[in-house]
UniProtKB/TrEMBL annotation, chain A:
This is NrsF family protein. Signal peptide: none annotated. The keyword Membrane applies. Keywords: Membrane, Transmembrane, Transmembrane helix. The chain crosses the membrane at residues 21-43, 63-81, 93-111, 131-148, 157-177, 189-210. InterPro entries: NrsF.
From TrEMBL, chain B:
This is Sigma-70 family RNA polymerase sigma factor. Transmembrane segments: none annotated. The lineage of its organism: Bacteria, Pseudomonadati, Pseudomonadota, Alphaproteobacteria, Hyphomicrobiales. Residues 126-176 form the RNA polymerase sigma factor 70 region 4 type domain. Belongs to the sigma-70 factor family. ECF subfamily. Residues 38-100 form the RNA polymerase sigma-70 region domain. Pfam families: Sigma70_r2, Sigma70_r4_2. It comes from the Bacteria. It comes from Jiella avicenniae. InterPro entries: RNA_pol_sigma-70-like, RNA_pol_sigma-70_dom, RNA_pol_sigma70_r2, RNA_pol_sigma70_r4_t2, RNA_pol_sigma_r2, RNA_pol_sigma_r3/r4-like, WH-like_DNA-bd_sf. The keyword Transcription applies.
Amino acid sequence: MQTDQLIADLASQATRPKNQFTLPLWLAVALAPFVALAVFMPMLGPRANFVASLATVRFDMKFVVTGLLAVTALALLAALARPARPVAYRLKWLALPTLMLLAAVVVELLVVPEAAWAERAVGQNARNCLIAIPTMGAPVLALFLYALSDQAPTRPALSGAVAGLAAAGISAIFYAAHCPDDSPLFVAVWYPLATAILVVGGAGVGSRLLRW
Amino acid sequence: MQPASPSKLQGLDDLLRRALAGDERAYRAFLTDAATIVRRFAAQRMPRHSAGFDLEDLVQEILLAVHAKRHTWRPGEPVGPWLFAIARYKAIDAYRRRGKRIEIDIAGMGDVFEDPAGAPTAIAQDVSRAVASLGGRQRAVVSALSVEGKSISQTARELDMSEGAVRVAFHRGLSAIARKFGRD
C-alpha cells in the first residue's frame, strides 16, 4: 500500500473510538491501594497492636521507607509510560528510599548490641514476607501492566521492572502494617528480596506484553 | 535530531493539537509532514540497500504507531522529541527483525527447492496459520481481502466498516503477521 493512501486512511480516523475501554495510568495508581487492600484484609489484616505501635519509631520507619519507594517508583513509571519523557532525573529519586533504609540500618546497628543483630535480621516472618509482598503485589503489577499497555513505553522491560518496583512498594506498605518484625535489619534483608521477585516478574512480562 | 527546521516542528504541535480535537484536515497535514520527517530520519539511520529492508515499510510502521499512540502526546509538550522517540523505537524494532532474518541458516534450503510440489501446501498452511494468529476485525479483514479475494468496498459493506477502516485493519493485520512470522 502507498504511504499517501495510508495517511488518507489514518486521517479519516482522527477521533479515537469512544467505545474502546482504556485504563488511564492515574486511575490504575488510584485503584492500586484498594486492590492490595482487597488481598491484604482477608489474607493478613493489620496486627492487633497496630494503633499502639504507631508510637514506636521502628514501626513508623517501615511506612516511610515503603511509602517513599512507592511514590518514587510511580513517578518514574509515569515518565517511562510515554515517549521522550525525561527519565534520568526521576531515576535518581529512587536513591531516596534506599538511603533512608540504609540510614535506619546504621542507627539500628548503633543502638542494638551486636549479639542481637542476627536475630533481628532473621526475625520471625521471613517466609511470610517473601510470600505476602509478591502475592499482594502481583494483582497491583497486573493492573499497572494493563494500564501501561495502552501507553507507549519505549523501554518495555525497564517499564515492566519499574511497575514491579511500584507494586512492591504499595504491597510492602500493607505488609508492614501486619508484620511484627520492625527492625530495619529485617526490613533491609527481606523486603528487597520480596521486591526483587516482583521486579524480575515485571521485567519478564513487560518485555513481551508492553511491546507495540 | 535536526531533520526539520524548528518552525516546521512547531507547526506540527499545532497540527496535532487540532487533529486530536477531531480536525481531519489538520491530521492529514500532520501525518504528511511527519512522514517526510520520519522518512529522512529513517534514511539516515538505516542501511539503505540491504536485502529485506524497505524504507517505506518502516515509514508506514512508524505512522501506524504514531496513529495508535497519538493519545500519549499531550498538548503543550513538543511534538518533535515524541515523534523521534516513536520513530527510533520502531526503527530498532525493524532492525531487530531484520537481524533475526539474516541469522536464518540457508544451508538446509536445498531440500525446499528440490521439491516444488511440496511448496503450495506449505504456503497455504502458513497463510491460514498466519491469518488465524490475528484477532477480531483484523482477522476478518485480512481473510476477506487476501484469502477470499474480496474487494475493499465489498469487505467494508459486509463488516459494516468504512473503507478507510478496512484498509487500516488490513495494514495492521499484515504488519502483525510480519512481526510474528518475519516477512519476505
